[in-house]
Every structure is written in C-alpha cells, then in structure tokens.
Amino acid sequence: MRLVYQIGHKVSRFFPKSEIRFSCLRTYGFCSGCKGYKKAYNLGLTILVFKSLIFTTFTYRMPSQWFRNFSLFILLGWGAVDRLEAQQESGPFSEIPEKFSQRQDSLGFFWQVNQNGALTSGETQYLSSGLKLSVGGEEFTPQSGELLDESATNGVVDLLLLESRAGLKIQRSIWFDTERSGLRLIDRIENTGKQNVTIPVDYKSTFPFAWQNLHGTSGQILSRDPEPTLEAEDLGVLVRFSKADGRHDTLLVASGPGENMKPLLSVSSNSRELGLGYKLTIAPGESSVLIHWILQRNLGEPAGVVEVIKPFFESGRLLDSRLDSGLISSVVNFPASAFPKDGGVPVRLDSLIALNRMLDSKGIHRRAEDFLQVSANNRITAQVNPKAAITVVNEHVGELRFPITRVAAIQGGGAMGNNPVVFLRDGQAFGGNIEGENLTLISEGGKETKIEISELNLLSLKLNSADGSRPAGVNRFVQLRGGSVIGVANGADASLKVATSFGPKKLMFSQIAEWGYLSAEHPEFVVVMKDGSRFSAFFSEPTLTFSQAGERSLSLPASLCERLWDVERTFLSLDNSVDAWVSLEEVPDRVRGETNILLASNGLLSGALSEDLITLVDEGSAIQVPIQDIASIQRDFEAEEDGVFVVKLKSGDEISGQIQQKMLTISASVGECRIPIGSLFSYEAKGGQQ
User: Fold this and answer.
1) pTM, whole model, 2 decimals?
2) What is the pLDDT of residue 77?
C-alpha cells in the first residue's frame, strides 16, 4: 500500500500549492488505509484523473513535459496495486519473482531488480535494464537467492541471487545504498571444474531513448572511433542525456585507476545500449570478483561527476564497499590497494552524530587510515603518532587531556574560520584552546612532521571498533554553540521546563529523544519525544543544570544550548529542509513513532481527543459525533470554506463539515493540551483506521 501512496505523493509534488496536490494526497491517503484498497484505488484514481484534467484545462497552460509526466503516472497507476500484492518478504527463496519490490533512494530516484538480476528505474521510464550480466555468452539466470531487509542489516538492503551451471557458480549481490543514493553490485564467478577456464563476462545497460554523449569520469567525451575507450584516470562511464527533454544521467563506476583494469566498452548504433566487457581466466576452485556501482543523478555539467564519485571513491580508496575481506584478492577491476586494510565500518558509527554532521557538511568520509585534510582538493595520508595526546581548555568543563587513541578527528581553525574542536570516539566533542603533545605525522619512510593545530584544517583518525562506544553512565548529549558536545547523566527524575503553544510543560529528560533549534522559514526550538510527539518548545528557565557522569554538576546558560539528544539516537530528525506536512500519511515512518495527531507547522502529538463528542456543521445543519466512533479526522484543504474536515467513522461512513468547537482538548503523553481548531490538520484514533 505504501507504493500507492508514494505514486500519488510524487505526482502531487508537481503542484505544491494547487488543488491537484490536495486531491492526490486525500485520494491516496484514503486508498492506503482501507481493506478494499484495490477497488477504492481504481475509483479514486478515475475521479482524480478526470477532475485534475478538467481543472488543469481551465487553470493551467499545460507544458509538454508536465503532460508527459502526468500521463505516465496515469498509464502506470492502474497496475500499481497488482504489483503491491507481490511485495517480497525477507529470507531465502527458491523461486525467483518476476520483479522485486521497488525502492527509492535518498535523492528520490527509483530502483527495481528484475528476475535476471538486471536493474531498472522502477515505475519511471528511464532505465530499461542496468548492468544485465552475461557469463560465457549466456545470460545470468538465477535459480535461488535471499533477500535481507533493513531490520536484519542495520538499514542496508541486500539481495543475493545464485546460479549454478556446468563448471561455474555465479553469485550476484546487490546492496541498495539508499543513503548515498547508489547501488553496489558484486558478481562472484567461481570455477567449480577441474581445469582453467577463460570466459568473457559482459554487462549490458539499455535505455528507452538515445543518450546525448558518453563521458569518462574525468569529464571528457568518449570518442566512438572505433569504440569508446576509458582513459587511465577514468573510473567509469557517465551516460549523459539532454536536459531539454527532462532526463537525468547515469553513472557507472566500473574500475580503479590504471591501464589493466578497464572494461572494454561497446555501444549500439542507436545510442541506447552500452556494454562493458571483461575476459577472465579462473583456476579450478578459484573465484573472480567484479564490483560495480550504478547511480542516477541530475548533473549540471559533466565535470560535476567528480563530486558525485567522492562519497564512493576517493584518494585511491573505495569508501564503504561492504565487500567481504576474504574476496579482496579476487577482485579484478579494482586493485587490492583500493580496499581499506582494517575492515569495514564500525557498527556504532552512526551514533557519532556531531562528528558525522561536521564531516557531511564538508563532503568528507573517514577511512581505515589517518589523513590530513589540507583543503577540498588536497589530502595527505599518513600515520598519526600513536603516543600523541591532546589537551583542551574548555570554558565550561575546564582542562581536559585525551590520548590520541580516544580521538576520532580534530577540526582546527586554520584559514577556514572554524572553531577548533576535538571530536572523541565516544560521541563527545570539546572546543576551546587545543594543544597537541607529540602530535606528528609519520611518513612511510619514518620521517615525522609536526602538526600545528593553529594551522590545521582537519585531521581524521582511522576508524576502529571504539567508534560509537558511549561514555560510561551517559544517557544524553548536549551540544553547545561553538561545537562542544558534552555527555551528561541526568537521572530519571530530571526534567526540563518549557513553554509551548498549549501552555507551560514539564518534560522528563527520560522521555525526550531530541531537542534543537531550527532556522527554517519560522525559526523555532523544537522538542521530539520518544513516542514521536514533536512541537515547538522554548526553555522557560535562563539556566540549565546537567550532571556529568561521575563528576560535578554543570550549569549552562540556556541560550548556549543548541541541541540535545538521547544517547541511543543514531540520527537527528530535526531538519530545516522538511516539507510542510498536511496529512499523517506524509510524515516519514522513522519520525512518526506512535504519533496520531498532526498540527500546523509540523507539530505532532501522541495522544487522543479528550472530548466526549465533536459537532460538525454543514450547510446550517449540525451533527454531533461521539469521539469513540471516530477513526480519523483530516482537514479538507480543497474545500471552498476554511476549517472543513472529513471525518471517517469506524463503521466506514464519512461525513464532512466545519467543527463547531473553537478549542479541542487532547490527552497527550506530555499532559493535557488545549489546541485551537485552526491548528488541527489530521487525527487518527489508535487502531481506528479500517
């Protein structure tokens, strides 16, 4: 059912302020919540199509690109429900489905895997078949496999497909890297025979329309005389399309730098089919491994591909390839030096929230080695002296000294105008006057070079198992203006007094997941509770008191506190770029929690209406509706009058009208709240939707 809503939601984004947007949201919100969703979907879509086309005819000049996009949605829409019924569950399977479930990455691009392991762009008419595999002239035809979902892989979705044929075993592993918006494919070909085999391995990518040009990752156009050829510095192929037609680009990362690892390229005469070819020689009982990335992107210029590749490959290293270390020696299209020596990413790396936010702002990824970031284009890899130590004089906690083994990164002032900050592996960070003791870089020849923190841009220490191990006794972090992040250990009875739009509240620290300042359209402080409630909340005390774990009490001016989050938190949901939600269906799952009330300005409350009944007025007539009979309430944004709501009853009936009460009382986890009716957007009774 999620896909039904996603399609309607995506179409609605073409019209952020129009009636069509709200028609889409309302139609799909209804369809996704009812048992007879297939019939409701078809009926709702039919009404939506005619209504929207009539509306558009008289209110818009319909540009050709919009018409193509909208028509494509209509043509594909009726098949969406049937595809929903084939959603796969995680676990092994012996029968390969015709298509696996569609997924969407963080940049909004869609992906889907076909029965033969080839990739498509899902419901979007863009990529017909990506990196379709053939071995020895025969198309890869998997016979079994396994699907691992996010809960089993900490946010990673892995798909394994297996085929056994005479003398060969072929395995394709697909990782949906939604965070970095790319797919990683690992193809392992094992010789199960008794003699050496030399076989061609080919990848074919096809598009429903002709590309404009092919570029290497260094930006230059690849000549087609006689066939396009990658230069030594190229890591792959950029397939460029005409922006006038509204089409984005595809990037295939296919090799490391060097002459002997490049695939042979082949193209069709109609510029719609691109081939990558390798020839492998495999000894009996041995395997050869090919690793590729495929990305969809909107690039202004071909030169922009350099920045696109950085999160995946930088300074001769593949960043977070998730390749088993035992397979590195078998990889043929990347050198062994491209893979970190010390293994993968620590399990708890996501809990280093402050450090990750700083690195993300610079477009930097830590690696399994120490490096000095001189500038955006210059980086030096070397070993930091393991006997070094760092001393910080912080105005709030005094003087602190850390061995370099506890340090994850040091941000210096340099010429960048930054506040010098030491980031620890336990999630804390301390800014102030920083001095290094024996802080040197040791080159491969053993020469030591002193690091001057006053001139430092960024020093990143290599990943290890200590990353993300929280300080003993700490249950939350407080981030101050200037960059310091202090671990605190307030007891279960500690509370925070705040002022909200529904009166003063006393929030227990143990209930708070996150609190922070948003500088979006309407600057505000927002608190997020562990049950998903989210609302504006300002400190009502000038000084906040925290307890440092095993140490003294710490009193800080409230004006210095920029963020606060629970130590178990691995992400911050408060984001300045969040769209305005008008329905609970729009609230992302990881943000929503148990919340069932949506207020204006993205306010969320977990609770229930305390009224015995509400009174709806429509065309002068009034009807009283008992709260216990209500499944959901949704503001009708397309109604001609303000303040009209659609009320769905648990019986399945729907009624609409204006709610007569000016204020509603809500029994919430934060206490009783009086809410102006003008602030209510959406309400859903727990267990009430049918």
Assistant:
1) 0.58
2) 44
Q: Which amino acid is at 495?
A: S
User: What type of residue is 112?
Assistant: Q
The pLDDT tens digits of the residues spanning 161-204 come to 999 999 999 999 999 887 789 999 999 999 999 999 999 999 99
Helix (H, G, I), strand (E, B) or coil at 226: coil
Question: Burial code of 42-74, b = ≥16 C-beta within 10 A, e = fewer?
Answer: eebbeebeeebeebbeeeeeeeeeeeebbeebe
Question: At residue 606, what are phi and psi to the nearest 5 degrees?
Answer: -100, 115
Crossing angle of the two packed helices 37-59 and 19-31, in degrees rounded to 10:
180
Task: Give the N- to C-terminal CA distance of the chain in Å, as an integer.
Answer: 14
Instruction: Give the pLDDT of residue 81.
Output: 35
Residue recorded with tokens 């299209």: 333
The helix/strand count (H/E) of the chain reads as: 9, 53
Maximum C-alpha span of the chain: 89
What's the full length of the chain, in residues? 690
- List residues bridging with 110 in a β-sheet: 104
How is residue 396 written in tokens? Answer: 């709030």
- 8 Å CB contact between 235 and 309: yes
- The sheet with strand 440-442 has its strands ordered as 383-384, 440-442, 448-450
Query: Tens digit of pLDDT for each residue in 349-391?
Result: 888 999 988 888 887 878 778 888 888 778 888 889 999 999 9
Task: Kindly write down the DSSP assignment for every residue of 345-412, as one continuous string.
Answer: --TTGGG-HHHHHHHHHHT----SS-EEEEETTEEEE-EEPTT-EEEEEETTTEEEEEEGGGEEEEE-
Q: Is 555 helix (H, G, I), strand (E, B) or coil?
A: strand
Rounded distance between C-alpha atoms, residue 459 and residue 382, angstroms: 11
Pairwise CA distance, residues 6 & 260, whole Å: 44
Residues 6+ positions from 562 with CB-CB distance below 8 Å: 479, 480, 481, 516, 517
pLDDT (0 to 100) of residue 344: 55
